[in-house]
Amino acid sequence: MARKDSSGPVIDIGIDDKQRKAIAEGLSRLLADSYTLYLKTHNYHWNVTGPMFNTLHLMFEAQYTELALAVDLIAERIRALGVYAPGSYAAFAKLSSIEESEKVPNATDMIADLVKGQEAVVRTARKIYPLASKADDEATADLLTQRIQLHEKTAWMLRSLLE
């Protein structure tokens, strides 16, 4: 049964406290991965050069814009579960499976790096899905399904540029 804890009032949404917190922890990792990928994509948007500049500049802009919306949805789902969402670079660095990029690679390496980032987000989302499914947390499962589908498609589109 839901009970009051240090994070606030009773939360009784049909998901027990332990499952709710485990799902929120997984979503926090997804948020960190998504935010790190957002930052990396935005960096590459600013710094891409070469013959594919216009194409990549616009593609990266569309991708980081989508990620900016996604991080808000993920953070709001964490809050709906009654847990505070991480929101600092330090927290994201601890939680993310995606390494920051401190260099400015060439355009081809940017694309390859973003493929890896998109795939990392998919793997993180897949790890959370069984928790949401077991808890009958349809809202989180739906969010995860949408994120998986979008990141798989984006990875495919980026990968196609490398062929």
UniProtKB/TrEMBL annotation:
Task: Determine if Transmembrane helix is one of this entry's keywords.
Answer: no
List where the protein spans the membrane: none
This protein is called: Starvation-inducible DNA-binding protein
Q: Which UniProt keywords apply?
A: DNA-binding
Per the UniProt record, the source organism is Rhizomicrobium palustre
Question: Which GO MF terms does the UniProt record name?
Answer: DNA binding; ferric iron binding; oxidoreductase activity, acting on metal ions
Under InterPro entries, the record lists: DPS_DNA-bd, DPS_DNA-bd_CS, Ferritin-like, Ferritin-like_SF, Ferritin_DPS_dom
Identify the stretch annotated as signal peptide in this record: none
Q: Which PANTHER family match?
A: DNA PROTECTION DURING STARVATION PROTEIN, GENERAL STRESS PROTEIN 20U
